[in-house]
UniProtKB/TrEMBL annotation:
GO cellular component: mitochondrial intermembrane space
Protein name: Caffeine-induced death protein-like protein Cid2
InterPro entries: MIX23 (IPR019171), MIX23_fungal (IPR016805)
Polar residues biased stretches: 54-65
Annotated region described as Disordered, given as residue ranges: 48-69
Family of this protein: Belongs to the MIX23 family.
Pfam families (UniProt xref): MIX23
Length: 192
C-alpha cells in the first residue's frame, strides 16, 4: 500500500515558486489518485482462491474476485487517501490565502509602477499608429498565483471525483460523495 503525501513546509516562497508547487501536487496526485487502481490491487490477497482453469473458458465481464472487503477499503481511505487529500487541501488553502494577501515583497512591483506611469504619460495617436493605444500591464505574482490556485482546485475536484468513483466500483457503492466523506474524516481528525 502506498504512503500518504508528506506535507511541505508552507511558506509564501513555496507558493510563489510555481514549479515547486506544481511538482508537489503532481507527485502527490501520482502516488495516490493517479495510481488508485494499482493501490487497490495491492490490497487484494494474490491467489486467495487458487487458479481455476475454467475461469479462462469464458469471458467474464464482471470481476467478483476484484471486489475488496469493506474493512480493506476503509483502512485505505483512513490511512492513505484522506491524509493525502488533507495535505493537498492544506497546501491549496494556504497558497490561496497567500494569493489574496498583500505582497510587500513583490520584486516586480516597482517595475510595474514605472511601466504604468510610462503608459499613462504616453501620447496615443491611433490614427498615426493603430497600436499606440495598446498597453498590457504586467500581472502581479499574487494574481498569477490566484489563477493557478483556481485551476489546481478544479483539477483536484476532478481527480477526487474519479478516485471516488473507482473506489466505489471496487469497494461497493457508497451512499455519500467524496467531499462529505472527506469532510467527516477531517472533523474526526480535528477532534482527536
Amino acid at each position: 500500500m502506498s504512503q500518504p503525501s508528506s506535507a511541505p513546509r508552507l511558506t509564501p516562497q513555496f507558493c510563489f515558486n510555481q514549479t515547486a508547487l506544481r511538482d508537489f501536487l503532481r507527485i502527490s496526485r501520482g502516488t495516490t489518485d493517479d495510481s488508485i487502481t494499482q493501490n487497490l490491487n495491492a490490497l487484494l490477497t494474490p491467489a486467495q482462491r487458487g487458479f481455476d482453469p475454467a475461469s479462462t473458458s469464458a469471458r467474464q465481464l464482471s470481476s467478483p474476485g476484484r471486489t475488496l472487503r469493506p474493512e480493506q477499503c476503509d483502512s485505505f481511505k483512513q490511512r492513505v487517501l484522506f491524509p493525502s487529500w488533507s495535505v493537498r487541501s492544506d497546501v491549496l488553502d494556504y497558497c490561496a490565502g497567500v494569493a489574496t494577501s498583500p505582497d510587500p515583497d513583490d520584486p516586480d512591483s516597482v517595475l510595474r509602477q514605472i511601466e504604468d506611469a510610462t503608459a499613462r504619460e504616453r501620447t496615443v495617436n491611433e490614427r498615426l499608429d493603430p497600436y499606440s493605444g495598446r498597453y498590457f500591464p504586467r500581472e502581479a505574482r499574487t494574481e498569477s498565483l490566484a489563477m493557478l490556485m483556481r485551476n489546481e482546485r478544479a483539477v483536484e475536484k476532478i481527480i477526487r471525483m474519479r478516485t471516488w468513483s473507482l473506489l466505489g466500483e471496487r469497494c461497493g457503492t457508497s451512499h455519500e460523495s467524496a467531499e462529505p466523506a472527506f469532510d467527516a474524516w477531517r472533523a474526526t481528525q480535528r477532534r482527536s
